[in-house]
Write a structure and sequence with these properties.
Structural class: mainly alpha
Shape: globular
Largest sheet: none
Distance between the termini: 8 Å
Low-confidence stretches: none
Number of helices: 3
Order of helices and strands: HHH
Helix content: 40-55%
Strand content: under 5%
Length: 80
């Protein structure tokens, strides 16, 4: 299991992120969850993500979150 999936499961253990095709459509993450996940990502990757650059689609899947990390100058491999 990837580090990102561990973070998601720790945030919302009742949800099956691994089988979801869209975390937001499945109501797996709310705004507070997203802030929690972002904080963990920033700590692990040593980056600061500009919240103004975040779009809703950045939290649809594991890959879109990893894309956000890469766009923000982070090493997404740390979360894989």
């Amino acid at each position: 299991m990837s580090k990102l999936m561990e973070i998601l499961k720790d945030t919302r253990p009742e949800n099956d992120f691994e089988t979801s095709t869209n975390f937001l459509e499945d109501d797996y993450l709310d705004s507070l969850d997203i802030v929690t996940v972002l904080t963990e990502i920033e700590d692990i990757c040593g980056i600061e993500i500009d919240y103004a650059d975040i779009t809703e689609t950045d939290f649809e899947t594991e890959e879109t979150i990893l894309g956000l990390v890469e766009r923000s100058g982070g090493n997404a491999d740390l979360l894989r």
